[in-house]
Amino acid sequence: MTTRSENRPPSEYSTLESLPVRTTDDVTFRVRVLPAPQPDAPLILILPAMAMKAKHYLALAKSLHAQGLSVATCDLRAQGESRPSLRDGKDFGYREMLEIDLPAIVAALRQRFPHAPLHLFGHSLGGQLALLFAAARPTAATSVTVIGTGTVFWRAFGPRRWVEALTDIQWIGLVSRVKGYWPGGVLIPGAMAGGVMVDWSLHSLTSRYRPKGSSLDYDRLLADMTLPVLAVSLEDDRLGPKTNVDFLVARMPAAQVTQWHVDGDSPVTHRDHFEWLADSPVIAQRVSEWIGSGSVSA
C-alpha cells in the first residue's frame, strides 16, 4: 500500500542539482545550485533568515538565474535539509555557523564553480552571517548583499520601540538559556537553537558580536572590511527597520556600502520583512545590476 507522500511528485526545489557537504563535526548540508551556462558567471550564495527554509527562496534563486547568474542556496544548520535536525543535534551558536558551516559550504562551491566569483546574499540572520563571514575571510567573497538585515541592538529600534525590543529579545534569550532551545513564538515563530538565540540576545543587549566560543573579534573585522556591500532596507519591515540597517552600516566604515531603501516609490510592492520574496524578479534585477555596475536604480 502506498502512502499519500509516496504518490506526491517531487518538489521543484528537490530536483535541483545538489552538492553534499559534511562539516568537521558531522553536520550535513545539501547545497542546491542553478548553474549559468557560462562557467565564469558570478555565483550568488543565498543564506536564509532565522527559521526560514532555503526552499522558500526558490523564486529568488530562479530570478537571479534568469539574470545570467549561477545561484546556490542551502539551509542553515538544523534547518530544512540540514542534518541532524534541531531536536536530534547538539546545541550551537553563531560560531559554528560562521567558522565551521560556511567554510565547508563555500569550499564545496569553489570546487563546483572554480572560475566563478562568489557573491553572498543574506536575508535577516543570513545577512548577519554573510557580513561576519566575509569580514573574517576577506578573500572568500567578492561582495555581500543583505536584505532585512540590521543590528538587533535595542537602542537602534528608536525610542518608541526600546521597551518592546529590550523585553522581547531578552525574553527570547532567557527562555533559550533555560530550555536549551527556542520553541518559537514572540518575534521568531519557528524553533531555533538555544545557542544562536543567546548569541543573538547578547548582541541585542550590547550591540557587539561576541559569539560564544569564538576567539575572533568580529566587531573589529567588520570595521576593517573593505568589500562592496549592498544593504537593502524595507519600508514596512518591523524586524529590520531602516534605523537598524543604518546602525549596522555605520559599523562598516571601510566598506564600499550602497544602500537601497525600498519605499512607496519603488516597483517592489511587498515591503515586509518576509513578503518581499513575492517581488523576487525586481529584487534580482536590481541585485544583478549592482553586481555588474556597483550602483542600483531606485
From TrEMBL:
UniProtKB keywords: Hydrolase
Coiled coil feature spans: none
Record protein name field: Predicted alpha/beta hydrolase
UniProt cross-references to Gene3D superfamilies, sorted A to Z: alpha/beta hydrolase
GO molecular function: hydrolase activity
Domain Serine aminopeptidase S33: from-to ranges: 43-166
SUPFAM superfamilies linked: alpha/beta-Hydrolases
Keyword Hydrolase tagged: yes
InterPro entries: AB_hydrolase_fold, Hydrolase_4, UCP037442_abhydr
